[in-house]
Amino acid sequence: MDGWETRRKRIPGHDWCIIKLAVACVIKGLLLDTAHFTGNNVLKFSIQATILSSEEELQIPPRNTTVGSGASAEDLDRVEEIFSEKWKEIVPVTSLRPGLEVTRYNYVKVFSNKPWTHIRLNIYPDGGIARLRVYGEASPEKPPANELTDLVSMLNGGVNQGYSNAHYSHPRNILKPFKGVSMSDGWETARNQNRPAIIELNEDGTLNVNVSEWAIFKLGFPGSLRRICVDTSHFKGNYPGDVKIEGAYLEKENWFPGDKVGWTSVLKQNPLEGDKEHWFDCESDVITHIKVTISPDGGISRLRTFGYISPF
């Protein structure tokens, strides 16, 4: 069983575990996947959450991953010091379905606007869960104003808020913090149905196609961009011909379709190559959102936008 399975409960109580999130996060939803646990799945679960300081986190004892191990009395005594059983309940006791293909996926919405750093997964009374997915928006602490920061990274609160086409894979993927592992781990559009029958070049080496696809991203913090990376790794025969990036400062937090935005150039149209990191210098005003336009279509693996947050 490629998941977490506890021994059959023969003492009072129920099983639980504490999980640290990758970054402080406003949780929007959860997926509990009980795949393969068809006769030994968890019957019910609940989720609690809290914000722990680095000092409080030290109270959580390190654990080994040996099969058949359990928390010692000393471990439990140390964990009691962070009062995890009293953390905020964000998902009440909820039934789980067994891990058959038609019932394995258990989705739950979370109605909370607070950021959390740790969650406690309670299972009643015992059993197995294959995977836990926690969906939300990162809400990290503000970095120093003099520190070069990837402002669009999802770990810094970057979010995709709109796109023209996501036929093969979603543009939110390009905000992930690690290197892409495949084409499906990036953003790939369908072939633009309005692309010309014969492709011609402009004098600057960009494609003269007059069709494009786009995606709009909210930065984690308002800031000014200084260096951009457009990574086409894995896209060898389906990378975009070129890319341009524009920025805007929106007074409201979110962009919506139909909004009239005064986009200004951050990165002029530049030709791209396949399976390669492209680095560009730039100098933008303070902006909150960027619009990435690729011509005529294709795929991007990752986007990095390094800059300095606005001190105001």
Automatic annotation (TrEMBL):
GO terms for biological process: allantoin catabolic process. GO terms for molecular function: allantoicase activity. Residues 1-138, 157-308 form the Allantoicase domain. Belongs to the allantoicase family. This is Allantoate amidinohydrolase. It comes from Bombyx mori (Silk moth). The lineage of its organism: Eukaryota, Metazoa, Ecdysozoa, Arthropoda, Hexapoda.
